[in-house]
Design a protein that fits this description.
Keywords: Transcription, Transcription regulation
Radius of gyration: 20 Å
Protein name: TetR/AcrR family transcriptional regulator
Strand content: under 5%
Distance between the termini: 69 Å
Largest sheet: none
CATH topology of the largest domain: Tetracycline Repressor, domain 2
Oligomer: single chain
Pfam families: TetR_C_33
Organism: Litoribrevibacter euphylliae
InterPro entries: Homeodomain-like_sf, MT1864/Rv1816-like_C, Tet_transcr_reg_TetR-rel_C_sf
Length: 204
Amino acid sequence: MARRFDHSSEEITDMALQWVKHHLQSDLSDSLSLRKVAKGIGYSPGTLINLFGSYGYLLLRVNADTLDELSEQMKAASTNDTVPEQQLNAMALCYLEFAMAHTQRWRLIFELKLATDEDIPDWQQQRIDQLLNQVKGLLTGIKPDASNREIEQTARIMWAGVHGISFLAVEDKLFSPAKLNHSEMVTTLIRNYLTGWLSDTESR
């Protein structure tokens, strides 16, 4: 066990976050516990509670880092193209690839349940909004005359589909006798949805 003042608060915080991320490379989040994290970095559970406020908020900080990484990778993927439709498809494929490569961290974003008296902090909500805003920005470029409500709804519906394919892919629950190409499914979803969305406007 490390002595109480072996590391600064910032160092202990980083140690805890990195330990959880490393653990999730090969193990389920259900196998984590506050005591296990504390033991893994050589500090007491109380030290972690003092730093993060609760075990739930510790995991929420891990989720924040995951969202930051995902957001940056999606942004980078979209810069390889200049056509909004292609940029959107690149971001969707990046989302799928991230889920496949970092499955347990990706799953923790959606599986984490805070205590009833714990609210999602602004810094976490801002990250969630930022991710969706990337999609909304591209949709606005594709259909500049669309209302804010239409863009919001389209972004959420489309990404729900991308997320659904990603979830079924990581869980291996597509229930198909043939090995389906998940990337092709995502690309087909984006292409067909955009085609229907744009043609619906033209037919009015």
